[in-house]
Amino acid sequence: MKRSILLIFLLAGFTNLTMAQTMVIPANPQSTPLLLVGATAHIGNGQVIQDAIIGFDQGKLTVVGDATQNFDKAGYKVINVAGKHIYPGFILPATDLGLTEVSAVKATIDNDETGSINPNVRSIIAYNTDSELIPTLRFNGILIAQVRAFGGLISGSSSIVQLDAWNWEDALFQADDGIYLNWPNREKRLFDEKTFTFKTVPNENYSPQIRQLEEIFTETLSYKNNEQNQKANLKLMAMKGLLDGSKRLFLNVNDAKGIIEGVKFAKKMQVKNIVIVGGGEAYLIKDFLKAENLPVILGNVHSLPRREDDDVDLPYKMAYLLHQQGILTGLSYRGTQSSRNLPFFAGTTGAYGLGKEEALKLITSNTAKILGIDKRVGSLEVGKEATLFVSEGDALDMRTNRLLHAFINGRQLQLDATQQALYEKYKNKYQEE
Questions:
Q1: pLDDT confidence of 19, banded at 50, 70, 90?
Q2: What CATH superfamily classification does 90-377 receive?
Q3: Dihedral of alpha carbons 180, 148, 174, 359, sign
Q4: Which terms are listed as keywords in the entry (predicted)?
């Protein structure tokens, strides 16, 4: 009898829990060819097609054109999206999405590993597909993300995921695409409690940290040249991809001098592909970046400039300044809970020189090229994966970015979750009678 009563209470509690939130269920594979007609298509490479026809089957784009195109619609399910806008899925790089849920609760944070040199730490195996933050990104058109660890000098190996899956294996888009290296600063800021001000002092750990990096790269070079004669070493095996070009080195650094030092160091260590992440002072060394053919993933656009004598709107127009120089540029967002705002960062850069279509490239085709996945996603082109969405209006404007349909590899996503359920619950609570 007691067991029966206990079971009843447990079932009642579980029922209340499940009713309190909307479960997001990953979509099934595409089974019917679909055709989106009538919308304005923003291809992601700067091109715009009015009154577009976008078709896809078995997860691949089969037709991209306009209404004048002579196309046989037989076999396709037609979805009329006249007056709407179609975009390739947005790409969020350099994020700890799925590794951090609530930044103030340590038990929900798994984005940092003990130790300073951790290239063998794979962020993908800690990626939590049940994170309630993931749907909030999808609502704004972010359908692909590069998940990385933080902390230490070498944080670990990043991986690229698509944001609709039951588990990390299903989410995996590209495994172990790069290594994140946090270049040490020559100086650090300390807070003076007596004057309540910050002061800049030399970083006494700078030289030891550089020596640590030299050691791991030197060991990697030796390991690569004599791998058959050495025991398996997980750290060196992970680093080896930097030297043969199969992985990218994501150099996380903001100050101009640090960027130059970090790049020269990586070149000396025979690293093939280097990407600057952060790049807060990249505008000061545009010629250097161009000469070295280095792409840049900018950090938070909505921030203050690093130097007191810089224009207050410098972060807004940084992408434009780099674009003028011909530097391949993408955008990221530091801060998982608010990273859904990535499209609006791009919108800001569009208003400060780039224009909307060039701004769109910062979070679509440009980022896809930087991450090495542009043959699959990043633009609406026949043969690429059908990862795209339909918005009521301009997807880079928070006032009109409202998704009606979203697809990952042709699979139509569920676009409601806890946030929508709460909205429906409380929308009438404070209405005036």
A1: very low
A2: Metal-dependent hydrolases (3.20.20.140)
A3: negative
A4: Signal
